[in-house]
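Lab notebook, design round three. We kept the backbone fixed and only want residue identities now. Task for the bench partner: fill in a sequence for the structure below.
Input structure tokens:
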């Protein structure tokens, strides 16, 4: 049986013990939170091909491919829209496949082949997809356009290679380059100006399929 004075002592001991535990925990979590700040950035060598030229440089290992292209190589044709993988403005081709360059680290592409809008064509010698965007008026402000064009080039390669999409009726047959296929495959590329119909016309034109 406990007497009131015993209870008081027990409660006091408990409070002191709890306070000590909280103090210990918060000081150790403070130390844990501070630890990374003392480590600093890790500088890593990066080497890959960009638009046919071998590029070698060192950068913070946390640098995205998008920032490496824009800030380190000054290829600012590739645009930063959302920086969260939601708009497609940063689309480039890596070893021929389209990717969102804001969602991948530059150091993950050692030895690979990166193609940006600057590497597809020049003002005097446009890539067929660039020429088709001009012909079909596939842009207004142009901010999304480099990503749209790189993505469109990747889409036609995917279709040619027989890669099915969410709307392919037969997963084993070579997909048709139908409007539905093109719209589905381009759905990750947002155009705030709403040039979608003309973009689909441009891609259909390059695919050789009749609209
Ligand atoms: Fe990469 Fe928007 S900037 S998806
Ligand atoms: Fe303006 Fe697409 S042309 S966002």
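Proposed sequence:
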């Amino acid at each position: 049986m406990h007497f009131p004075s015993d209870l008081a002592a027990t409660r006091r001991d408990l409070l002191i013990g709890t306070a000590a535990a909280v103090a210990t925990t918060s000081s150790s979590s403070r130390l844990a939170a501070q630890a990374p700040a003392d480590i600093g950035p890790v500088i890593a060598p990066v080497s890959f091909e960009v638009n046919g030229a071998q590029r070698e440089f060192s950068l913070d290992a946390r640098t995205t491919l998008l920032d490496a292209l824009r800030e380190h190589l000054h290829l600012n044709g590739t645009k930063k829209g959302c920086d969260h993988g939601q708009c497609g403005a940063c689309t480039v081709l890596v070893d021929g496949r389209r990717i969102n360059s804001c969602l991948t680290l530059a150091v993950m592409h050692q030895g690979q082949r990166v193609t940006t809008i600057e590497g597809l064509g020049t003002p005097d010698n446009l890539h067929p997809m660039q020429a088709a965007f001009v012909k079909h008026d596939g842009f207004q402000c142009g901010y999304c356009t480099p990503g749209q064009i790189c993505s469109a080039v990747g889409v036609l390669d995917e279709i040619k290679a027989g890669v099915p999409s969410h709307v392919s009726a037969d997963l084993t047959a070579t997909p048709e380059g139908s409007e539905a296929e093109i719209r589905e495959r381009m759905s990750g590329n947002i155009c705030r100006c709403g040039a979608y119909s003309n973009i689909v016309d441009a891609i259909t034109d390059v695919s050789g399929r009749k609209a």
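Keep this in mind before ordering anything: The chain has a mean pLDDT of 88.
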